[in-house]
Amino acid sequence: MLTAILVDDDYPVIRYLSQAVPWSELGIELAGCYYSGLEAWEKAQQNPPDLIITDIGMPKMNGLEMLEKFRAMKPGIRAIILSCHNEFKYAQQALKLNVGEYILKESLDIEQLEHALRTLVKEVGLNRQQHTEMLVYKQKQSQNRAALKEKFLKDTLYQSWDKAAWIEQARSNGIMIHAKTYIPMLIVIDRPEEASRVRLMSEYTISFAVENIMQEVLEADHSLFISRNSHKEIVILFCSDQSSRDHQAIYHSIQNAASAVQKYLKLSVSCIFGAEARSPEEIRGTLQRMLKEKIHRFYFPAAGIHRFEEISFSRDDIYAEYGSVYAVINDDIALNRETELRVHVKEWREWVASQKFHPNEVKECVLRLLMDLQMKTKQLLQSPLPMAEEKLFSVVGDIETLEHLEDWLVQYLEELARKISIFSIKSKRSEVIKAQQFVISHVTEKITLEDMAGRLNLNASYFSRLFKRETNQNFIEYVNMLKLQKAKELLNQSGKTVEEISEYLGYANKSYFIKLFKREMGMRPSEYAAWH
Hints:
- The protein has about 525 residues and is of the alpha/beta class.
- About 60% of the residues lie in helices and about 10% in strands.
- The strands form two sheets. It has a five-stranded parallel beta sheet with strand order 2-1-3-4-5, sandwiched between helices. Strands 7-8-6-9-10 form a five-stranded mixed beta sheet, sandwiched between helices.
């Protein structure tokens, strides 16, 4: 349905037309009635109508002046003039402003106006249909060009060509790539899943937009071929006859193109140069390595320009520091220390980057850390896990850079810490919260009810009743629960004997420790260690 406004300083005319014309039957919504050109312009310019029925002679801004302003804002706007002026100069001006009908008020009848409105509705509808058809045609053209480019890229990647045949195949698809040398580049959209979620666009649409922006910027100064390889990867071949001269210019242009993507789409891309190539076979070899061996991009920071190189990954044991890393992160989560958690994860990431461990080993180490922490959460607090194990493996496996892995890991651990704080510290009483936090951070020390009550300046009996009421658990039961959880970690990781662990956790009597452990786990500590 089209929208229309009535503009006339003659109130009876406005009232008569608004009631006499069957607007809805004509497919028109009467959006407003105004008594001067200036009022119509001020109130309707935020949402310009499709049709304007207006007088000419009005104070402050006449009808023709108003139409000129609306037409500058919305060129396709249509109009009907209702005027007392029977002068050629007004009719001539009206024609220039795309006025569909010039009707003198003295001869006005509703049927004449209805006929004029029906004619304009049909014209606007036809124009809209033609515009839609043109958009569909252009979209299909664009899709066809994209399909041809993607097919040519696949042919380049997976078929053997001599250079002349390859250039001719490109030319037959409208792609001009004749050059002495080629500089391949891979554009990787950083975190496309997050970008899709934030931008409310499909990953396909995002990659299409990135390709078009980069092509528009780069084609101004370079001969090139550009095509998507996937929803997150775009391949560019720069054509060069003087590569030593062109490298610096290409680098500068890529910076501008990446900045344009950031400006218009609010997302970043990583740009990776490949080795210069002179033949389709060399191009194929370089691009296949760049596309298939994603592990060599793992240590690249996002939003940068890099040169592709195959990394020699460390053969050292990534788990050599696992025990200490787990201990500090476990404490940070237990005490909900957000700042310290971020610092410790960053320190671990920097250590991993300095050693250059294989990406698969890094991910496996992260998964082990998360599994250990989640097991503790499940057993200790009986709370639901933040993410199912299968989903966890899938998410971590799909992460392609260490930088992304660090950010994701911090978010996940912070969520885990919040869950633990919610489920472990249910009390609103500060004394109970302080007691729980003290036990978590001093779990290896001997802790008695009397000592804890003394620290809180409370009577022991009162503190015992308070803790039970607030947590539905005796204080000593809570202490032993945390100590046994720590014992399981030590049995899994430290290589300490049962006696050493008992003493380390503040139990003076090893037999008592074994008895508690068996009651909790259904087996002795030595059996648990052998089983794990």
